[in-house]
Write a structure and sequence with these properties.
Blueprint lengths: L1 E9 L2 E7 L4 E6 L5 H17 L3 H9 L16 E9 L5 E9 L8 E4 L1 H6 L4 E4 L11 H7 L6 H10 L10 H14 L2 E5 L2 E6 L2 E4 L5 H14 L8 E5 L10 H13 L3 E5 L3 H10 L6 E8 L5 E6 L9 H21 L1
Parallel strand pairs: 3-12, 3-13, 7-11, 11-12
Antiparallel strand pairs: 1-2, 1-4, 4-5, 5-6, 8-9, 9-10, 13-14
Helix pairs in contact: 1-2, 6-7, 8-9
């Protein structure tokens, strides 16, 4: 289980420490407060346990800076930046892995810090779902990335690779079957693959993913990750803006499935700008659910800080709620102005 992350002069952050819930972690905040950077930093440190790549390489491939030194926070005179990700190992003792960068580095020479050997002893199954759907772009994309140097973060190739994994040989347990059934009901069918193409099979036949609404493709991806066993006990799901291209009506299903995945032992990290998704979490939360809301904001000095709470009503500052509150106030003023 991941327990916290620390940043020192890394990308958007000068000094930041964020505690994690073992269940769901929801990051909110205005644009430029580093939500996506947090997800990418977490994913890179988890992914290194599976592919045994160099963590500095993974950070470079997932952030794509022009030169590695640009990962050091540019707002001050700092020459060094670093980040550390912490977790509990099998013995319930806390270990961490991290990197140090220097602002004059042109290539990935990040210095490893922490208990790297202990960290790599335990694999962490992780998956990063980016804002942009990739399943419709799957045909040829992996070979393009492999054969040529194209300017895409590694997360895009990774998610296609994980979607193509075959289903588990073991029978699907009851809890996962219920989740799959819920998604199938919303999508109106099951997902199938042929070669490098994805299809939705329903009562009318097979429909190519390129012809599906992007919202349905995102739900289809979630279906695949549950079906092939990526999302099971001990795994980590990172999802950047689940609401993108999804009708607000679907947020009830998405929030419900994420809460059930948390009950199955999946640790979840979400970055969102969506009022409806937040409200769905609030409405569907039960005592057995574990969730932390992390509000990222700029303080008076311009540094990014975080306020974390388990209580939805205590999120402060709440940029999403403030924006919707402002809309309601403006609507009321417009209404009464028209009455005069």
């Amino acid at each position: 289980m991941l327990t916290k992350i620390k940043f020192e002069n890394f990308t958007a952050f000068q000094h930041l420490e964020i505690p994690f819930s073992p269940g769901i972690n929801v990051f909110i905040g205005e644009n430029g407060t580093g939500k996506t950077h947090i997800l990418k930093a977490i994913y890179s440190a988890c992914a290194v346990t599976k592919n045994r790549n160099n963590l500095a390489n993974l950070i470079d491939e997932n952030f794509l800076p022009i030169q590695t030194g640009h990962l050091v926070n540019q707002s001050g005179k700092s020459r060094k930046g670093e980040y550390k990700l912490f977790k509990n190992n099998r013995n319930s003792s806390e270990i961490y892995i991290g990197l140090q960068f220097f602002n004059n580095e042109k290539e990935q020479k990040g210095t490893k810090i922490g208990n790297e050997k202990s960290w790599l002893d335990e694999e962490i199954e992780s998956v990063y779902i980016p804002v942009k759907d990739m399943l419709a772009n799957a045909p040829g994309f992996r070979s393009l990335v492999t054969e040529y140097k194209v300017h895409f973060e590694k997360i895009y190739a990774d998610i296609i690779d994980k979607a193509f994994l075959p289903m588990l040989k073991l029978p699907v347990d009851k809890q996962r079957r219920l989740l799959l059934d819920k998604l199938q009901k919303v999508m109106g069918g099951k997902i199938e693959t042929k070669g490098e193409d994805f299809f939705l099979r329903n009562k009318y036949g097979k429909l190519e993913f390129t012809l599906l609404a992007e919202g349905f493709r995102k739900l289809g991806l979630l279906w695949l990750l549950i079906q092939n066993g990526i999302l099971q006990k001990g795994s980590v799901l990172l999802w950047d803006e689940p609401e993108a291209n999804l009708n607000p009506k679907m947020m009830e299903v998405v929030a419900g499935i994420l809460l059930e995945l948390q009950q199955l032992g999946v640790q979840i990290f979400i970055a969102t700008h969506d009022y409806v998704l937040l409200e769905e979490f609030n409405l569907q939360l039960k005592k057995e659910n574990q969730i932390l809301f992390h509000s990222l904001f700029h303080n008076k000095s311009g540094e990014i800080e975080v306020a974390s709470t388990e209580n939805y009503n205590e999120i402060s500052p709440n940029a999403i709620d403030e924006a919707f509150g402002s809309l309601i106030d403006r609507d009321i003023r417009k209404h009464w102005k028209g009455k005069k």
